[in-house]
C-alpha cells in the first residue's frame, strides 16, 4: 500500500475528531471521526508504517485541540508541544497495539474491542502516573490529562450523557467508540454505496485497505454488529430519557457567582485593580433582589492572602495572622462569601502555600477552608524539580512558587433565607475534570451526609478568548450528572454558570464579560451508581483486555503473525 493511503485516513480521523470539539463543536461528527483511523488496525502494511500512521492521527487531533494552552505564557508553547507530540499520542499508539491484539480474538468486532480499549486508556490518561486511587498515600498525587474524552463531545446530547451517572463520562465514551467501531467495519467491508445509485465500493477504493485475511467480514456479521450497537445506543438514550423524566427539582439556597474579565497579565501585575473589579461585583451581587445566601469569587481573585497555622507559630507569624484576621473582619461582606485566594500556612516549622477556597460569614469570620488537592503540573508545582531543576523553564513563574496539595474534602455549610441548612463541596480550577474528586462529595463521610451541591472556582484568565472557556464548561456538566448534584461555577473571564443535576446549563454569562450570575440552586435527591462505585467501568475494560490478550495469543490454524 502506498504511504498516502495509510497516512491520509489517520490524519483525516484526527482532524474530524477535532471538529467534534470546540471551537467548531460539531458533536455528532465524533460518532464516525475515528472510523478511518480504525481501518489501519487491519491494514496490510509494515508495522513501522502502521504505527507511524496511528501516531500521525493522534497528532492531527491534539496539535490543534490543545493549542489554546500556548496563550497563557510563552513557556507554555513547550507544554503544548509536549502534550500534542509526545504525551497524548502515546496513548493512541498503545491503544492501537492493544486493538491489534484483541482483533485476533475470533468473533470480536471492533464495535466491542474499540470501546474497551479506548475507555481503559482514557482512564490511564486521566490519572497517570501517580493519580490512581489504589496507590499508597506516600506516592499518590492527583495528576493526569482528563480532557478531550470522547464522551465530552456529547455534552449537548442530554439523553445520552445521563449514562454518566452509571459509569461516568467513560460510559458515554464507550457508546461513541462503539459506533465508530461499526463505521470502521462498514468502511472495510466494501459495502458502502457512494452517491445515488452507486454500486458497492471495495475497501481499497475508499481507504486503500483490504479485508482482514483469515476472517472475511460477511454481511451477516456486519448486520449483527450493527444491530447490537444500535441496541446499545437505543438503550443508552432510552435510559437517559427515563432519567430526564422526573419532578421539578427542589429550590435550594440562592447562590451568586461574580465574574470579572481580568486577563492573567493584568491580574499578575495589578492586584489593586483586580480587587476593585471584584469588590464592585460583590457589592452588586449582595444588593440584588433576592439577596443571595452565598456569593462566590473565582479562584485566586481575592488580592490578599489568608494566613494560618496548624500549631503554635512563631511570634512574628502569629502577629501577621492576627492582622490578617482583622483585615478580613473589616471588609463589608454583607452576606457569606466563598473566596478564591492563596493561603500560607505554618506547619511544623515550615511555611506552605495552598490554592484555597475560604468561606467567611457576613462578618468576615472563618467558617472553613478547602485547599486544592489536584494541582496542575508546571502551573502550581514543578514535578521532579529537585532532580531536574531545568524543568523550571517550562513554567510561567520565576522562583519557587509550588503549592502543597490539600488533604481534606471540606464540606461547607450554607443556610437559605427560609432557614434550611445545606452543604456544598468545592472544586478549584481543573479539579472539575477529575471525576474521582467530585464523586467523593456525593458520598457520606463519617457522620457527614453527602453534599447538596458543588461549586467550581476557576481563573480562566490565562486563556483569554480561546475555546478553553467553552470546553471547561462542557467538562463540568458531566460532574453534575455523575454526582446528580448541581454545580455553580464562578470563573474569571468565564464561563460562570449554574448547571442542574441533569447537566443542563440553567443560566450562564458569556465569556470575557463582567457580571453576576445568580439562581436558586436546584437540589436533587437521586442517587448515582457512579458516585457509589467509582471507576468500575475502566476496571472492567482492563480485565477484558487481559482476557483478550491471552485468548488472542492463540492464532487460528493457518493464520499468520501480525505484521
Automatic annotation (TrEMBL):
Superkingdom: Bacteria
* Every CN hydrolase domain range: 258-523
Q: In which pathway does it act?
A: Protein modification; lipoprotein biosynthesis (N-acyl transfer)
Q: Which Pfam families match?
A: CN_hydrolase (PF00795), LNT_N (PF20154)
Q: Which GO terms describe its molecular function?
A: N-acyltransferase activity
Any one GO BP annotation for this protein = lipoprotein biosynthetic process
- Per the record, the major location class is membrane
Q: Does the keyword Lipoprotein apply?
A: yes
**Which Gene3D superfamilies does this one have?**
Carbon-nitrogen hydrolase (3.60.110.10)
What membrane topology is given?
Answer: Multi-pass membrane protein
GO CC terms of this entry: plasma membrane
* InterPro entries assigned: Apolipo_AcylTrfase (IPR004563), C-N_Hydrolase (IPR003010), C-N_Hydrolase_sf (IPR036526), LNT_N (IPR045378)
Q: Which UniProt keywords apply?
A: Acyltransferase, Cell membrane, Lipoprotein, Membrane, Transferase, Transmembrane, Transmembrane helix
Q: What class of enzyme is it?
A: transferase
Q: Where does the record say this protein resides?
A: Cell membrane
Q: Provide the transmembrane region boundaries.
A: 15-40, 52-71, 77-99, 222-242
- What Enzyme Commission number(s) appear in the record? 2.3.1.269
Q: Which NCBIfam families match?
A: lnt
Q: Which family does it belong to?
A: Belongs to the CN hydrolase family. Apolipoprotein N-acyltransferase subfamily.
Q: What does this protein do?
A: Catalyzes the phospholipid dependent N-acylation of the N-terminal cysteine of apolipoprotein, the last step in lipoprotein maturation.
Q: What is this protein called?
A: Apolipoprotein N-acyltransferase
Q: Encoded by which gene?
A: lnt
